[in-house]
Amino acid sequence: MYDIGIIGGGTAGMTAAxxxxxxxxxxxxxxxxxxxxxxVSSTNVENYPGIxxxxxxxxxxxxxxQAMKLxxxxxxxxxxxxxxxxxxxxxxxxEKAYPCRSVILATGVTHRHLGIEKEEKLVGAGVSxxxxxxxxxxxxxxxxxxxxxxxxxxxxxxxxxxxxxxxxVHRRDxxxxxxxxxxxxxxxxxxxxxxxxxxxxxxxxxxxxxxILNNKKTGEDFKxxxxxxxxxxxxxxxxxxxxDLIKLDEDGFILASEDCLTSCPGVFAAGDCRxxxxxxxxxxxxxxxxxxxxxxxxxxxE
Length: 302
Ligand code: NAP
Prior knowledge:
5-stranded parallel β-sheet; 2 domains; 7-stranded mixed β-sheet
């Protein structure tokens, strides 16, 4: 029997484990893909307080090492469901069942991908899903942001401070994101809107060299030369398998606020998987601490 069962071995989950272990709780982190989470694919992290520069993989491996040295157990299995039984919880994976007195869901999100050839191959070589993580590496260069929501608009604005030119490529001629943000971008000399256009192809074998776009109105293909492509076409939470246990919002994010409490007592949500405004490494770590301590409080019957 574990005191705290954590589903998800990203920054939020591992931070929760550190807080749980330091409070003397028996903690297990169950991770089905890769320990470290999203940040592993960031070549360099420069916005974590107190660490001027670190690779995403080094950051997450240090975090995992820290959690394990404190005694957190790790399980490399996909959690399929959480059952509530007599005030306890059972996390079921394809291999085993893990009984726990409390559960922290730290399942993260996955960035929606374009699903085109070379996209996966060139992640870290020009293709990025995080402008705030990777934008500074494109200082003085030309880049494209794909998407028309608030994330894409904000990414374009952020990148316009570093890059020589930012193409904002959106599949419709109207943005989904806030008008005021789009208006502000329009004023920027180094931002060009490429509307009603989809990405047909990424050019480059070892590094991104450009994009072949398709003008949806004329049907014509055209090329832009860029060394970075920031894909900001939405995020996909993976909480469906827990929807009978806790409430989700209409987009599938776990309904929980800054206290990380969910609709089910004893189940907590930490990091990008919950409803929140800012999905960053720092906020994932902060959630891990909050959820870890909240679980300890729950276990103490407070
Ligand atoms: P989003 O609002 O869902 O927008 C995704 C954008 O990507 C849409 O413009 C969509 O086009 C486009 N898209 C989706 N699939 C695509 C595909 N396969 N190919 C090309 N384009 C595709 O996602 P988001 O911008 O990540 O924002 C998520 C949520 O967080 C939103 O509620 C947003 O308001 C919020 N957010 C808020 C702030 C803030 O400061 N308040 C900042 C960031 C995000 P269509 O428009 O044609 O569907």
